[in-house]
Amino acid sequence: MSSRRCEQSGLPGRVIVKHNTAEKSASGSGVDSAVPYPSPTDRRLCEQILQVLRATGYFKLRDLSVIAIEGCVILRGHVPSYYLKQVAQSAVRELSGAIEVRNELVVLAYDPAR
């Protein structure tokens, strides 16, 4: 799969976004749909990704956005270290349904002066 497919995250019916894993959607699944009719495969993949991120034990990985489009996964959000950015990417790559992983996580280091 080309990375070009990952860039087309606005495809109708193919996008699932989860903004906050700590909150449940109205359906109770913990995955919020960006469009009314996401692919069942993409929905399952996002649910698996959220479970894997929770299973890492790192609290900061529970508050990430996940987008799945035909097996292409995009991770978005903020993490406090490059290590956690890599942990998230490695955990997602292990899933069989993730054909490609695009890691758009931004590292925002803790600044005690703030």
Range of strand content: 15-25%
End-to-end separation? 42 Å
Low-pLDDT stretches are 1-15, 18-30
Number of strands: 5
In this structure, how is the largest beta sheet organized?
Answer: 5 strands, mixed
Per the principal axes of the C-alpha atoms, what is the gross shape? elongated
Order of adjacent strands in the largest pleated sheet? 2-1-3-4-5
**Mean pLDDT across residues:** 75
Number of helices: 3
The radius of gyration is 14 Å
User: Topology as H/E string?
Assistant: HEEHEEHE
Count of folded domains: 1
Structural class: alpha+beta
Task: Specify the helix fraction band.
Answer: 25-40%
Q: How does this structure look, described?
A:
With 114 residues, the protein is α+β, with helices and mostly antiparallel strands. The chain has one domain (12-107). Helices cover 29% and strands 23% of the residues. The chain has 3 helices and 5 strands. The chain has helices at residues 3-7, 40-55, 82-93, and strands at residues 16-18, 32-33, 65-69, 72-79, 100-107. A 5-stranded mixed sheet has the order 2-1-3-4-5. Strand 3 (65-69) and strand 4 form a beta hairpin. The protein is elongated and about 45 Å long. The termini are far apart.
